[in-house]
Amino acid sequence: MKRIFAVSLVLITLASLLTVSASPGTADNPLITQSFLRGEFTEDLRENVLESLNSLGDEALIELNELYIIHGGYNFAPGFTPITLAQGETVRLAIGGSFTLLSGTASITVLSGEVINITTGTLVESDTSITQFQRYFVAEASSALITAQSAVTGHIDGFYTTDGETPPSPPANINALPFRDVQPTHWFFAAVEFVFSNGLFAGTSADLFSPGSPMTRGMFVTVLHRLDGLPQTGESSDFTDVQNPARFYYDAVVWAALNGIVTGVGDGRFSPDASITREQMAAILYRYAEFRNFDLTADSPAFYEFTDYNAVSQFAALPMRWAVTQDVLHGADGRLIPQNTATRAQVAQIIYNFAG
Question: What's this model's pTM, rounded to 2 decimal places?
Fold first, then answer.
């Protein structure tokens, strides 16, 4: 939600900047570019801004997830969550937490660092009374204790514990993965944990999984080859673009082709370095399921509830129905988006759904 808001705000600002009164080519606005003349300037600029914001957003989410881990023993309240305290009860706030008193009386004790009254913009003295309807914010590397002097109602957000208890330390193995871009709060965490621990995926470096990077056809077939136990065929490749046995995907492609799991893209080619599409994944997984005599039931009416089911290519129609029926492939916003490429995180989730 924060990223959506940030992107929307920037785009609104861009729109206001782009609707200038001076015409291109005048003294006030002398710059005319080819992209402007083709009517592509605004869209290109929008895409560049979105790409930059998404990159910044990913970095911020990594930092935020690290905070969740550090404060693993705390509760987390979204903004302006109602809270009630009986007389004598306490609540401890950690970095980024805040409290607003709505009724009753309470005091605040600064346990470490600094607390700021962001309503007045002043630092808060320890062991002072809280003023109603003013927001008290716990700064970086700081903590504070709110004590109810009478029955209290208020708003709280951020990391907190009740009754002033020191939160337990998070388990040492809260994230057993070596990747700093895969944290327990990510939707794909369980899937990445499964594919990594079972040797199906490796990282893109010692400490990066690169969940948003594209998955190639060669990579995908290599994952299936590993899932099948790395069988060796002793055969050579018939694909004109898979001729180097030193390539990481060579044995996997030979095995998959020999067993009818892959058929190539035409003209004797496999296109190992091309990004794999969702319908190509479904087709390859379906053929692998057939090879292994798995359940091939593909009769779920849910397939036809997707608004773009007619966009599925003919070769992938049955595999996509099968993938939906077997709960292997899920749509996005009511669509299958069959020709869209898949990221490493998405493929990890699909493999997890299939084999987990």
Answer: 0.55
